[in-house]
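Input for the complex:
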Amino acid sequence: MALGDFLTLATIAGAILLLTPLLGRYIHRVMEGERTFLSPILRPVERLVYRVSGIDEAAEQDWKAYTVSVLAMALVAIVAGYVVLRLQDVLPFNQGGIAPMSPDLAFNTSVSFETNTNWQNYSGETGATYLTQAAMLAVRNFTSAATGLAVAIALIRGLTRRSSKTLGNYWVDLTRGILYILLPISIVGALVLVWQGVPQTWDPSHAVTTLQGGKQLIALGPVASQEIIKEIGNNGGGFFNANSSHPFENPTPLTDWLEIVGLLGLSFALTYTFGRYAQNQRQGWTIFGAMAVILLVGAIGAMHVESTGNALLPAGVDSAALGNMEGKETRFGAALGGLFMAATTGTSTGAINSWHDSAQPIAGLVPLFNMELGEITPGGIGAGMYGMLVIGAILAVFIAGLMVGRTPEYLGKKVESFEIKMAMLTALVLGASILGFTALASVLPDGLKGPLSAGPHGFSEILYAFSSQTGNNGSAFAGLTGNTPFYNVTGAIAMLIGRYGMIIPILALAGSMAAKRRVAPSLGTFPTTGILWSVLLMGVVIIVGALTFFPALSLGPIVDQLLQNAGKLS
Amino acid sequence: MTFLRQRLWPAIALLIAFTFITGVVYPAAVTVIAQVAFPRQANGSMLVVDGRTVGSSLIGQAFSDPRYFWGRPSAAGANGYDASASAGSNLSTTSKALIDRVSAEIDRLRAANGDAPIPVDLVTTSASGLDPDISPAAAEYQVARVAAARGVSVDAVRAAVARHTEGPLFGFLGEPRVHLLELNLDLDGLLQ
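Predicted:
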C-alpha cells in the first residue's frame, strides 16, 4: 500500500464524517415530515402521489399493518417485475433483438432487485432491454432502497417512542425516502457521472471500425441515471456485465471515489438520524464508530494484500509495482480494487470495480466475512442500521445484562425475552440460509455443476453466492455459473429469506419496544455510548459472525490461501 | 376485501406512480440535461477522425500490429475487447488455467520485445475486458519495439507516450496510466 492509498482512504473518511451529520439531520427532518429546502418543489408531488394512491398520510400503522404493507409492496413489485422480464422482447425500447428471460431467471432477477440484492444471473449488455433497465430494474433500485430506509426508521421509532402502538406509515415513509432523499441525490450525481464520461443515451449500440480495421460494437444506454441510484441505494446491479469496473460505469478515479462515498454515505448518515431520534447524538456516533472500525480494518487488509503480487505467476513478470492485476483496471489499480471490495460488501451494494474471484484468497475473505456479519458495517441503506441495532445492540445489551445480572435496557426500555427471541431469529435465519444452501449445493449434482474452480476455491464460489444472496448484497465470486434452474431458484429463496426473514422479526421487535414505557436510568444501567460500549458491540458482532461461519470460511478461502502459499495449483 | 383495498391497492398505485416518476421522468430528465450539457460524454466519448468514428476514448481496442502499442489481454467476448460483452476471466490466483495463459502471453511478448521483465498488467486480463489504459511501465516496455517498427527515434515515441500519460488525480487518487487508443492515433498522426 502506497501513501496515495492512505490519502484516498483519508479523503473518503473525511467526506463521510462531513456528510453524516448533514445527511443524518436531513433524513430525520424528511421522515418526520418537517419542511426542507426541497419542500416547495416536492411537497405538491408528494401530495399528488398520496391522492392517486388513496393514502392518508396522517394515519399511522401498528407493526402488523406496517409489515403487511411491506410484504404487499414486495409481492406486487416481484410479480410485476417478473411479467416485464418475461415480455421484454415485445415491449418497447428493445435496443437490439434481446430475448425474454427464462421463467427461473426472471424469478431470480425480479426477486433480486426487489430485495435490494441485485444478484445478476444475466449479463446487462445482452440480457436486458433499455425498458427493463430504466423502467423496471432502476425503479426497484429506488423502491427497495427506500423500503430498507423505511424499516430502519420504523425500528428506530419503536426504540425511541414511549407507550406507542404505532411505528409510522410505510407508504408515507417509502414515498418520502424516494422523493426527498434518493431522487434529488440521483439527479445531481447522475449529471456528475455524465460529465466524467458515463453515457446517458437511448441510442442503440454503436458499431465502429477500430484503428487496426476490426469491428467493435460498443454497447451504450441510459447508464448514468441507473449507475448513481445503484450506488447510493446500495443496490449494485450493473448496467453492464462488468459492473463498476466497466469504463462506461466508472470511467475515472474521481467517479470511483464518488461511487465509494455514495455507497457508504446514506448508511453512515443513518447513525446520526438514530441519534436525533434518541435525542442523544452520542448514541449515534458510538454505533458509527463500531461500524467504521470493522470496515476500515477489512478495507486496509484487502488493500494491502491486493497490492502484493500473485507469487504463483511465472518468472519474468514484474508484479512488485502494481500488485495483483488479474481482474483489475489500470486506472484504479490493485489497492482501489481492495478498497471497493470492502466497501461494497460492508454495505449491501455488491457493485464491483474488480473481480473478487481473482483476488488473493485471503483478500476474498474480507468481502465474505463482511457479508456474513449481516452487512452492518455500515450495511445497506436502512438494512445496515436495523441489522446493527438488532444483531449488534440488542444482543450486546443482553450479554452485558447477563454479565451484571440485571434485566438489560436499551435507550431506557427493558429488553425482555420476546425481543431477544426476535433478535436471535434474525441472526439464525442468516446463518441457516447461507450454510444450509451452501451445504445443499455442495452435495447435489446440480449444485456441483456451478463452480468454475475445483477444490476449496470452488467451495468459496458457492459459499460466496449464498452469502451474497442471503445478505442481499449481490456481488459475485463470478466464477459460479448461476444461470441454471437450480441456482436461480435456490438463490431467489435465499434472497427472500435474507430480506423478509430479517424484516418481519425486526418489525415485531420494533412494535413490542414501541409499546414499552421508559424507565429512568439507574446506577445499574449499562451505558450504551462511549468506547467501552462500542468495543462490546464490535465484539458481539464479530463473535456471532465468526462462530457461525468460521468452519465454512476455513474450508474455503483459508485453505485456498494455504494452498497458494504452498505453491499448489488447482 | 379490506386487505385488497388497504394494502394491495396502495402497493399497486405506488408502484405505478414510482415507475412513472423514477422510471420515466427521472431518466428522461437526466438524458435531456446530459445531452445538452455534455453531449460528447453522454454519447460514449467517441473519437472522430476525418468524419469517421474510430472508437471510444474510454473503451479499449485490440492491438497486435508491432507499430502500435499493445493493451492488456482481454476476456471480453470470444476474441477479446468485445464492447458488447464486458467480462473478466474470473480465474483464481491458484488456477492452472491462469498460469498457462500468462505463460503463453510471456512467450508472445518476449518474441516481440526481448527479455526485459514484463509489467504485470500486460499479462493479466482487466476487470472489464475493455481497459482503455496501460501502466507507464507497460508503455516503456514497448517503446523500443514501436520505434523500430515505425523507423522513428525512441525519443519521439517516448514523447508521444508522455503526451497521453495521465497521473493520479491531485497526485494521489487512482494510478498513473497511458491512454492507448489516443496514443496510437497520435503515432499515426491522426489526432488533431
